[in-house]
Amino acid sequence: MILVAGGTGRLGAAIVPMLVAGGHQVRVLARGASHAFPDKAGDGVEHFRGDLTSDADCRKAVAGCTAVVFAASGFGIKDSDPRTVDRDGAIRLVRAAAEAGVGRMVMMSMRGAAPHGPIEYLRCKAAAEEAVRSSGMAWTIIRIGVLLEQRLENMTRPLQSKGKVLVFGSGAVPVTYTSVQDAAALVVRALRDPTLQNRVVEWGSQTLTGTEVAQAVLSRAGHGSIRRIPAAAERLMSVAARPFSPFLARIGRAGLWEESGAAAFEFGPARGEFPDIPVTGLQQVLEAAGQPGLPA
Ligand SMILES: NC(=O)c1ccc[n+]([C@@H]2O[C@H](COP(=O)([O-])OP(=O)(O)OC[C@H]3O[C@@H](n4cnc5c(N)ncnc54)[C@H](OP(=O)(O)O)[C@@H]3O)[C@@H](O)[C@H]2O)c1
Predict the structure, then answer these.
(1) pLDDT tens figures, 109-159
(2) Ligand 1 geometric centre to CA of 35 (Å)
(3) Which numbered atom of ligand 1 lies nearest the CA of 5?
(4) Measured in angstroms, how far is the CA atom of residue 225 from the centroid of ligand 1?
(5) Looking at the structure, do residues 69 and 51 belong to the same domain, yes or no?
(6) pTM value?
(7) Could you tell me the distance, in angstroms and rounded to a whole number, from the CA of residue 240 to the centre of ligand 1?
(8) What residues make up the domain containing 102?
(9) 112 Cβ closer than 6 Å to some ligand 1 atom
(10) Do 25 and 100 share a domain, yes or no?
């Protein structure tokens, strides 16, 4: 049995069917709060409604598992935050797994994770990484870039209603994106490939500026134009929103971090090691989604 914490999320929901297709029994842990939670079990999938803030739920979730994947997050959830989920929830789950004798853990992290990183999310991810490294289990830390599908969702939200694609910041700074498909494929590989044990892998799909992403979206949609949200607005949001919306404040800070250029990285060497994992870039993601912002 393999536990996928956050198995209903953007990435988790892609990992689960890949594991099932590989013949694994899978258990999904989520609260059923930010994402829909299936009422009944699917083939090879058990759903456990639980909370990473609870020691008891973490113990129940890992019981009988040989491996655990941490793909939960509080970053993009309005009523949650990275400290509760990405740091403390991850540490709680790592401890529960190690105590239960789980042998293998894959920790989803982000490129730039560091104890003194410039944004809280990266510091929380560093704490989770440290927990899994020192857990005694065999581990793999997968540091991805910004999830491409999440960025597309955010940029294309007003496309249908207002004909606009949002570009945050200058739109001129390169950002390395990782597609859900590519991240999920590496998770599945890490669970079976001994060469990925006790390693940190930095895994990207494509590096693009915001304007390049927007132009590709507009050309696929066949209509619309760009609306820019300047870095000054992100800076204002990162401070002014703090008292009433920590969520908006952290989105603003993350935007400024990207604007600094720190969200672009070299992923060629890791890709070179696993050439059989196909690269799913922006064009492939747009093709798979149909026309963004328009009815399928
Ligand atoms: N998105 C990115 O750009 C990005 C970049 C770098 C790294 N990552 C990492 O990649 C992984 C997947 O990210 P994602 O964007 O796919 O996440 P997501 O779509 O936001 O999904 C988060 C998942 O975590 C669950 N969750 C949240 N709080 C929970 C709690 N207290 N207890 C149990 N489950 C909880 C959510 O379900 P409920 O809310 O219903 O419980 C959901 O299943 C995460 O570890 C994330 O930190 C993401």
Answers:
(1) 999 999 999 999 999 999 999 999 999 999 999 999 999 999 999 999 999
(2) 10
(3) 34
(4) 31
(5) yes
(6) 0.97
(7) 26
(8) 2-144
(9) no
(10) yes
